[in-house]
Amino acid sequence: MQLRPLAVCAIVFFTAGLAVSSFAGFREFIPGLLQGAAVTIQITVGGCILAMVMALIAAMAKMYGPLPLRWLAVAYIEVFRGTSALVQLFWLFFVLPHFGILLDPLTVAITALGLNVGAYGAEVVRGAVNAVPRGQWEASVALNMPRALSLRRIILPQAFVAMIPPWGNLFIELLKATALVSLITISDLTFKAQQMNQTTFRTVEIFTIVLVVYLALSVLITVGTRTLETFAARGIARGR
Amino acid sequence: MTTPMVKFDNVTKSYGTLTVLDSLNLEIAPNEKVAIIGPSGSGKTTVLRMLMTLERINDGVIYVDGDPLTHMQKNGKLVPADERYLRKVRGNIGMVFQHFNLFPHMSAMKNCMEAPIHVLGLSKKEAAERAAELLDMVGLGDKKDQYPSQLSGGQQQRVAIARALAMRPKVMLFDEVTSALDPELVGEVLNVIRKLGTEHNLTMLMVTHQMGFAREFADRVCFFYGGKIAEAGKPDEIFNEPKEERTRQFLSAVLEAN
Fold first, then answer.
1. Mean pLDDT score of chain B, rounded to an integer?
2. Does A149 touch chain B (CB under 8 A)?
3. What does DSSP say about strands B93-96 and B171-175: parallel, antiparallel, or unpaired?
4. Residue contact B118–A145, C-beta within 8 A
5. Could you tell me if B95 lies within 8 Å of chain A, comparing CB atoms?
6. Which end of chain A is more exposed for a tag (fewer CB within 10 A), N or C?
7. What residues of chain A lie within 8 A of the CB of B163, using their CB?
8. Structural domain contains residue B256
9. Which pTM was predicted?
């Protein structure tokens, strides 16, 4: 199950290593680009955490909340799915200051991407919760469990397993979307690459490294979610 | 005259224009075992599901141990029950389903401990003792830590019975509990129900296709047809000398299939 992504990972790192060692010129760019990669990772991790929290809250509000809360959740999901992530970034970064709210770029980046991916995630959560067999709800009613309790102890743990693969996709989407934050002055991987490119014009080396780093990071996410999936599926033995 | 444990008072259930149950009147005495038989679509499963509050009723009142289930007294009038009241009365009822509906992410033991801990407020130790005792009773003392997927259908259904009993209900509902089982596993589940009937003070309502079991076990058999009780009586009366033509037709069809 996990062998394939591991193999891909190995090949990617091997190729990268080969490239780096065979072109001496690659080496000088590595430290700078890795600094950028660290920022990219930071935004990805922060964004993913925010996205999961928002997705869970929005999905619960949309499914079980009182009417005003439901509208709020629907509005959030539609606005953040229906507009471009770049525009959302710009809006938080350039428009909010007009209303006296000044956020530092990193906060803007994590907030915008987290909210954006969270909106997609909300639908993932909703779908997974709906996919839990009706009989599980009925059994909880028959055991006189209040709805919040059955949701927390019975339904969500089962929905969680079904959520992992689509969340893996969303995490990768988020990783790739972090390239946009270079446009709001954050020195992430892409920003660093552009900066170096402008001073050295070594386009081939620089953007090859960047490509490989993004790929390696996304493979890492894939391996992570696969592992989690196998682990979770084992714990939650499926059946009726 | 004792208060009936369960009483359906003119209960009607319909989906749009389709009437599933038509002014049902039925009283079940404490400790009575009632079998519900009838062709599919006759509304027999709906009776159990309404009693378990899995279906709303459109008209009438259901009483459990003298208290209205779906309604509560307010200023001398019956108004639809709120969630809190519903949960109080619903605590008297337990149900076992055709498809077991065990929680797949919990062991047999945890399945039986979950609601006693979080709903009844038992300590972990008390809940574990109760669960272990009940799993022993259904003959699964050695399978306590198995997950549902590791158990056979019959074993799963016996866990489901133990899980329902752990809530100490006064009324147990069995909804075609052997219909999803392979024929060789039916016996072990029926044996557990038989044992419950003799060793515990429980009012039981079962929808079943096991005519032999209904005849031997039940105090009363109700034959449902078209959303009404077409005929009810002692098992011997219903099975040996049914008065209604529809009952006769149904019984001969079922017996022929066997």
1. 92
2. yes
3. parallel
4. yes
5. yes
6. N
7. 143
8. no
9. 0.85
Contacts of B162 in chain A (CB under 8 A): none
Q: Residue B130 domain-assigned? A: yes
Could you read off the pLDDT of A13-43 as tens digits, one per residue?
777 776 666 666 677 888 888 999 999 999 9
| Range A192-196 average pLDDT | 91
Residue B249 maps to a domain? no
Test the A interface: residue of B46, B88, B98, B101 with most A CBs within 10 Å: B101
Any chain B CB within 8 A of the CB of A148? Answer: no
Is residue A237's pLDDT more than 60? no
Q: Residue B159 falls within a domain, yes or no?
A: yes
Q: Check residue B28 and give left, alpha or beta (phi > 0: left; psi -120 to 50: alpha).
A: beta
User: Which two three-digit tokens encode residue B20?
Assistant: 């599933």
Inspect the interface and report whether the beta carbons of A240 and B52 lie closer than 8 Å: no
Residue for token pair 């084992």: A234
Of B54, B114, B149, the CB nearest to A138: B54
Q: Cβ–Cβ of A138/B97 closer than 8 Å?
A: yes
Determine, for residues A158 and B83 on separate chains, whether the beta-carbon distance falls below 8 Å. no
- Report how far residue A190's alpha carbon sits from residue A196's, in angstroms, rounded to the nearest whole number: 10
Outline where DSSP puts E strands in A33-144: none
Interface test mutation site (partner A, options B69, B103, B143, B159, max chain A beta carbons within 10 A): B103
Tell if the CB–CB gap between A143 and B164 is shorter than 8 Å.
yes
Give how many domains chain B has, as a whole number: 1
Tell me how far CA of residue A159 lies from CA of B66, B113, B148, in angstroms: 39, 21, 17
Class of domain A3-235: mainly alpha
Q: Does the interface predicted TM-score (ipTM) exceed 0.85?
A: yes
Beta-carbon separation of B164 and A145 below 8 A: no
Please tell me the number of Cα atoms within 13 Å of A109 on its side-chain side: 26
Token pair recorded at residue A16: 């990268």
Domain spans of chain A, in order of start: 3-235
Q: What is the pLDDT of residue A239?
A: 40
SS3 (DSSP) at A86: helix
- Whole-angstrom distance, CA of residue B26 vs CA of residue B222: 10
- Would you give the distance in Å from CA A2 to the centre of its chain? 20
User: Average pLDDT of A54-70?
Assistant: 95
A160 touches chain B (CB under 8 A): no
Calculate Rg over the CA atoms of chain A: 21
Q: Are A217 and A173 in contact (CB under 8 A)?
A: no
